[in-house]
Amino acid sequence: MPFPPEAVRWDAPCGIGPGGRWQCWFDVRIDAEALRPLGLHPDQPTSAANGPSPPGWWHAEAERLARRH
Prior knowledge:
Order of helices and strands: EEEEHH
Helix content: 10-25%
Shape: flat
Oligomer: single chain
Number of strands: 4
Structural class: alpha+beta
């Protein structure tokens, strides 16, 4: 997405999890003002879901297709 570099922050913290194995995860943060031109700022009505979620089979099919690629 077309965000200026100073508007994006990401971290990749790692540590020992509850099971004693190493775990890593990503944390990506984008300044809210950088989202406004895309209609995704939390104060804009277009940033909220405006309808029901797709049915469960739709999600399952999307996951199945993603694994094939």
